[in-house]
């Protein structure tokens, strides 16, 4: 590979650029974005080599295009690059939802184009922008790729190799399976954190509440500091899976409420023991990965 174009040089696009620079120092990295000042900062920091005067110029002889913007931007970017797409150019994305992105790709890209590989690195933070980008973000982390019948084996292999060179472990699954899994373990927890903080921050005594909030509150709500735009887009894109997850969670809350109302000591203990054991087993499994 000689030239990589990244749309959206923020936390994820910037961290991938840093990883690519380390693994493939000779590759030219061209960044595009909607905010000139941020792109200037990305160039000054040495995260990208340069920006481009136009999409046409950026796409000229590009080997790989990475779309690392909020997911609602991806359709328009695919439409904008399509007239400039060369046969050998591979296109991938890093969006947190995959069924919507695959549908956009089918609508926007030429019917005979087989170089689109939908992807999602399972690594990140509540911080946004290129100043939050960092070396090693993807080390030992999963990257999920969701190839479909239109994806060529060669494009899939190229994107897999790129992520492996960034230190990640690649797993393939369907977009539908991906969206169901991440609705449960990523998207729902973000909504719960936003909802809790929103509720407390709407109270008259919020100053007092936040004054005494400590590490339990910090751990539960860290992700409520995440990008509102990114999470609006994810929530709307994965709405049917998320509505099912919200139903299941509300059922748990209703169960909890009944146990408390009935002062059901054994029931509460059983529920907390089940959750505590599952959480500790999961945390231990992370150490052996
Ligand atoms: N933050 C995470 O933890 C995380 C983890 C994995 C995947 N993702 C996904 O990665 C993507 C980027 O997230 P991030 O955390 O890097 O966000 P970010 O806000 O740090 O970066 C997004 C960048 O995209 C730019 N941008 C927005 N619209 C654009 C457009 N139309 N054209 C070009 N550039 C545009 C923004 O200016 C910004 O620089 C999202 O799709 C998100 O769902 C995020
Ligand atoms: O660590 C965090 O702050 C994250 O929210 C990262 C996280 C996650 O839920 O685990 C968030 C969204 C991404 O799509 C992938 C990873």
Automatic annotation (TrEMBL):
Transmembrane segments: none annotated. It catalyses: prephenate + NAD(+) = 3-(4-hydroxyphenyl)pyruvate + CO2 + NADH. Residues 239-266 form a coiled coil. Its EC number is 1.3.1.12. Keywords: Amino-acid biosynthesis, Aromatic amino acid biosynthesis, Coiled coil, NAD, Oxidoreductase, Tyrosine biosynthesis. Pathway: Amino-acid biosynthesis; L-tyrosine biosynthesis; (4-hydroxyphenyl)pyruvate from prephenate (NAD(+) route): step 1/1. This is prephenate dehydrogenase. The lineage of its organism: Bacteria, Pseudomonadati, Pseudomonadota, Betaproteobacteria, Nitrosomonadales.
